Each structure stands twice: as structure tokens, then as C-alpha cells.
């Protein structure tokens, strides 16, 4: 009903709603079938990437260096024993001195750095993103730094794990788990403390807090990353029974100019520790433990990792 010469209550309310929410990005116009197809394509690409020769499935060893000499090979008397047929009993030696690592190959062992056979070489660790990678047949290795510890990460491009993983089970795709979120930015980026499976703490920059609603209840997640996409490590009530006990990972679209984005739990994926004992995964910080069951994304993969 309207009063003569005055707008109806309906149009007044409509005007107020548009004023309040008009700045938000509208819900995607894609059909549900298109959305499901997009998620299925993501799952296909995810498995394809995991089966690439340099993926987490290739991890074959992790050896923590001691100060001084550390021997490396298939013979049992080595400090670091490699379990691989056709590889020399003695591959070489790692030398650690005051945080600096070098490698010396054994006699007649053709270790490659890029395309060159090397006999001795200093090894940059992965803290700057460009570690020195050495290769011998299907094996490769580089130095990782975790806290104050330095270790040798060994990979095998022909690891049996590649043949064993043919599928990653997921919850049914459910579009309701794609939720609108707002990034409440800090005045200045803060360093966020993230625990790891090694018992260490890593610090990463966070731009703010993602705030969203599920079933009319408000939840919050603290992401890392300052520019572009955001990265979230979260836990929920599916952990240990249906999903990995150490939580899952999630990439979140870059927020728009109003600070809004989408948190799509259908894209939640397993950390590397699910696929290998030799990964050094980050764990969800306390503030990212959701007190609900997130029945979306990847489930636990049995027979791998922890």
C-alpha cells in the first residue's frame, strides 16, 4: 500500500539496501554447472602438478647437517643413507662451517650442477628462494634452512609415489562454501607467527583479517601476503578424521578496491606433509582454528606422509 504522493515503504527499504551494499562486488553470474566444472578443472590441474617430477611426491629424504663433515651415499656407514638402487655407495660429503655449506663429490661420481659436472661447490640454501641444486641420475638435492637448522632435501624424479597417487578424494562440490569476505586491513602489516611440524615458529607478513559469515555466524581468518592473492592456513572440525590433522591450505583471490573477495573452501587443499614424511609443513595458527566442520575441499590421502 502507498500513501498518496509518497513512495512506498518497499522502495524506501530498497533504496537503503542499495546505499548500504551497492559498493560490494555482485555474486558471480556463472551457472552452478559452470562453477562445478571450474572446480573439477582445478582438481585435475592440482593432481597433474603433484605428479610432475619436481613435486612434493618426489621427496626422498631429509637430513639435518651437523657441524663439520657429513657423508652421503647408499652404504650404511654414511651419515646420510640414500635408499636407491643404481646409486654409488659414496656420493660425496657435505661440509658445514659457521652456517656455510659446501659439497664435494666422491671420486668418479658425476654430480651435475645445471649441466656441468662438479667436484666441489658452495651451496646456497633456500632462504632467498634460489638454492643450489645438484643432480645424480634421477636424484637431486638442495639445502633448506628451517629456523637455525640446515638440512639436505633429497628428491627422486622416479619415486614410486608417483605411481601410487592417482586420485585425491574431496568433499562434494558445494557452492555454499564459496563465501563473500571482507579484508579488514591493519593500519600497518603485522608479522604473524606460524608454527611448523618441526616445532619451530616462522614469521610471515599479514595485511589484515578476513571476515565472513557462514550460516549467519561471523568467522575470521588471518591470511599472509601483502600484494596479490592471499594465503591461509586453517584448521576445522574435520581434521584428523576426514582431513589432515595439521589443517589445510587455501589461496584467496586478491581483494578488490573495496576490500572484498571470496573465500572458496572448495579449493582447500592438503599441505605437503600429507604426501611425504620429509616435508616441513606450516600449521594453522591458533586464530585460524575454525570451530565448525568445513565439509569442502580435499580430504586426507591415506598411505602417504604423516
Anisotropy-based shape: elongated
- Which percent bin holds the helix content? 10-25%
Strand content: 25-35%
Strand order of the largest sheet: 1-11-10-9-6-7
Number of helices: 3
First-to-last CA distance? 65 Å
Number of domains: 2
Question: Over the alpha carbons, how many angstroms does the gyration radius reach?
Answer: 25 Å
* Number of separate strands: 17
Structural class: mainly beta
Give the biggest sheet.
6 strands, antiparallel
Helix and strand pattern: HHEEEEEEEEEEEHEEEEEE
Query: Mean of residue pLDDT?
Result: 90
Q: pLDDT under 50 segments (min length 5)?
A: 1-27
Question: What does this protein look like?
Answer:
With 306 residues, the chain is mostly beta strands. The protein folds into 2 domains: 56-164, Tumour Suppressor Smad4, CATH 2.60.200.20; 168-288, no CATH class. It contains 3 helices and 17 strands. It has helices at 9-21, 32-50, 161-164, and strands at residues 59-64, 68-73, 80-81, 92-97, 100-105, 111-113, 116-118, 120-123, 134-136, 139-146, 149-156, 178-195, 201-214, 217-221, 230-234, 248-252, 260-264. The strands form 4 sheets. It has a 6-stranded antiparallel β-sheet with strand order 1-11-10-9-6-7, with no helix packed on it. A 5-stranded mixed β-sheet has the order 3-2-4-5-8, with no helix packed on it. A 4-stranded antiparallel β-sheet has the order 14-13-12-17, with no helix packed on it.
Amino acid at each position: 500500500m502507498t500513501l498518496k504522493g509518497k513512495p512506498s515503504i518497499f522502495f524506501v527499504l530498497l533504496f537503503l539496501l542499495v546505499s548500504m551494499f551497492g559498493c560490494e562486488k555482485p555474486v558471480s553470474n556463472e551457472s552452478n554447472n559452470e562453477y562445478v566444472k571450474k572446480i573439477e578443472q582445478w582438481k585435475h590441474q592440482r593432481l597433474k602438478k603433484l605428479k610432475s617430477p619436481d613435486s612434493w611426491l618426489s621427496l626422498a629424504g631429509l637430513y639435518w647437517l651437523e657441524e663439520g663433515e657429513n657423508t652421503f651415499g647408499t652404504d650404511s656407514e654414511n651419515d646420510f643413507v640414500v635408499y636407491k638402487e643404481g646409486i654409488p655407495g659414496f656420493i660425496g660429503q657435505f661440509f658445514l662451517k659457521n652456517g656455510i655449506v659446501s659439497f664435494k663429490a666422491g671420486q668418479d661420481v658425476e654430480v651435475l650442477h645445471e649441466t656441468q659436472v662438479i667436484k666441489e661447490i658452495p651451496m646456497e640454501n633456500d632462504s632467498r628462494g634460489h638454492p643450489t641444486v645438484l643432480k645424480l641420475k634421477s636424484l637431486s638435492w638442495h639445502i633448506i634452512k628451517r629456523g637455525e637448522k640446515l638440512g639436505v632435501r633429497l628428491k627422486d624424479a622416479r619415486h614410486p609415489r608417483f605411481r601410487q597417487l592417482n586420485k585425491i578424494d574431496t568433499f562434494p562440490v558445494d557452492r555454499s562454501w564459496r563465501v563473500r569476505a571482507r579484508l579488514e586491513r591493519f593500519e600497518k602489516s603485522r608479522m604473524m607467527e606460524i608454527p611448523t611440524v618441526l616445532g619451530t615458529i616462522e614469521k610471515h607478513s599479514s595485511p589484515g583479517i578476513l571476515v565472513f559469515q557462514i550460516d549467519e555466524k561471523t568467522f575470521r581468518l588471518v591470511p599472509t601476503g601483502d600484494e596479490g592473492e592471499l594465503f591461509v592456513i586453517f584448521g576445522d572440525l574435520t581434521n584428523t578424521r576426514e582431513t589432515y590433522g595439521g589443517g589445510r591450505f587455501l589461496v584467496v583471490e586478491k581483494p578488490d578496491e573495496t576490500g572484498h573477495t571470496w573465500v572458496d573452501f572448495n579449493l582447500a587443499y592438503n599441505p605437503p606433509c600429507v604426501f611425504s614424511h620429509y616435508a616441513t609443513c606450516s600449521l594453522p595458527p591458533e586464530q585460524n582454528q575454525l570451530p565448525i566442520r568445513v565439509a569442502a575441499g580435499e580430504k586426507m590421502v591415506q598411505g602417504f606422509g604423516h
